[in-house]
Amino acid sequence: QVQLVESGGGLVQPGGSLRLSCAASGSIFRNYIMGWYRQAPGKQRELVARILSSGGTDYADFAKGRFTISRDNANNLIYLQMNSLKPDDTAVYYCNAQIAYSKSLRGPDNWGQGTQVTVSS
Fold this sequence. Notes:
Blueprint: E1 2-7, E2 10-12, E3 18-26, E4 32-39, E5 46-51, E6 57-59, E7 67-72, E8 77-82, E9 91-100, E10 106-111, E11 115-119
C-alpha cells in the first residue's frame, strides 16, 4: 500500500497562489499515475489534474491555464502549483496514486488525508 501525505494548503486571497505537495512512501513504482483531486462542501470529489510517469498530463477545464501539476520521480514527490485562485477553488485537496498495468488496466486508488485550501478576502 502506498502512503500519501499532502501539505501546502492554507488561506489565500483571491488572485493569490499556493503550491501543494504530496509525498509518497511505501511500495510506489515508476508506472503509477499520480493526481490531484478536490472536494468542496456538499459537492462530489472531482479531478483537478493527473500526471503519468512519462510526464504526460491531463487537467480539468477549471484548472487549465491556472494550475500546473509536476512530479519529482527520484524523490516520490508530486506538486500542484495553483495561480489566480478563486473563491470557488476552496476545497479539500487530495493526492491520488493508481498503478497502471497498461493503458486500459489499472489498480485500485490510493488516497492521502487531504489538505484544506481556502480562498477568501
